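Feature request, filed as a ticket because there's no other form

It would be nice if the structure record came with a short human-readable summary line next to the tokens. Right now we just get the raw output. Example of a typical job, pasted below so the devs can see what we mean:
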Amino acid sequence: MLIKQKVFIVTVGLTDPKNEENIDNIRKKLRLQVSEELYNKAEIFHLRGGIDYSKLKFIYKKMMGLFYKKAQSIPEEERNSEISAMIETYNKKVDFVDFDSLDRIVQSL
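Raw output as currently delivered:
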């Protein structure tokens, strides 16, 4: 199916994609969402994005509120960088977008 195709997977999130722990977590979650064949064939990139809670629809605000409450209940010494980032940015407008990080993707095309 994918033999002659070039495949790119680009993830976007709030956590720092240069942090090895974050990369490991992203890749573990990605493996659960795509086939082994696709994962092994793909060139994978991780970008940092942003969020503006004021623009979320009601259902997503509620969902993020539940995630936030759950995250707060985790003892600080057990929190990973993803959980810490979610707590720090909750209910705020944050933008970590770096358009220069797209250069690596463009060069691979």
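Something like this underneath would help us a lot:
The CA atoms of residues 1 and 80 lie 37 Å apart.
The chain has a mean pLDDT of 91.
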